[in-house]
Amino acid sequence: MTERELLEDMEKELLVDRYGIDYEGVLDYQGFIKMIEEWCRKNDFYMEIDSKKEKVTAKGRNISIGYNLQRKFDNIHFTIIEMDFSVDDMTDSDTEIDGMMKALNKGKVDIIIHSYLMMSIKARWETKGYAYFIRGIIDKFIYKLDKPSFRGVVVTDTYKLIDEIKGYLNIYRHIGEGTPVKGRLKGGWV
To answer: Distances from the Cα of 174 to the Cαs of 67, 104, 147, 167, in angstroms?
Structure first.
């Protein structure tokens, strides 16, 4: 069984749903990709690129990348952070930084982040009907089994990534004429 098949067979608890980051202005696209890779390396996440699309239009390039960031706590608990990163109408821009010209990019950035706690306790509880029923009652009314200690870690990791991205984009907002970085949670602005 491959790692992906194992993850698809696990229980999934959604903890951060559709957190969005919007930004328009100057950025270093290659630097952004390196920043995500470095964050994953520093925080022990395995990074997998699910999809990558690029389309050239008259206004500029439209790039969309789907990331799947994974970290294993133990044999049955995993953190999964899914990030959809897209840049619309991206053009090359020469910008002056400290008296030197630097080749940067300009465009509209939209990032959507979801994070999950994945558990492989299915085999222990769902093999017999009465055990599945009892677990449902316990989870709903008494206590969520095997989960509380890891929920906070997953949410904390997700918000660390969000803060890192916002900080990176805010640096470039002050260099060019960018809009302030906005965060939104399920349609509302944060």
So the answer is: 27, 14, 41, 11
Which of these, 122, 114, 120, 121, lies nearest to 50 by C-alpha position?
114
Q: Six-digit token pair at 74?
A: 């133990």
CA gap 36, 47 in Å, rounded: 9
**CA atoms of 112 and 8, how far apart (whole Å):** 21
pLDDT of the residue at 1: 47
**Angstrom distance (rounded) from CA 16 to CA 83:** 11
* DSSP conformational letter for 178: P
CB neighbour list of residue 92: distance below 8 Å, 6 or more residues apart = 103, 104, 105, 106
Asked whether the beta carbons of 79 and 117 are under 8 A apart, the reply is yes
pLDDT greater than 90 at residue 74: no
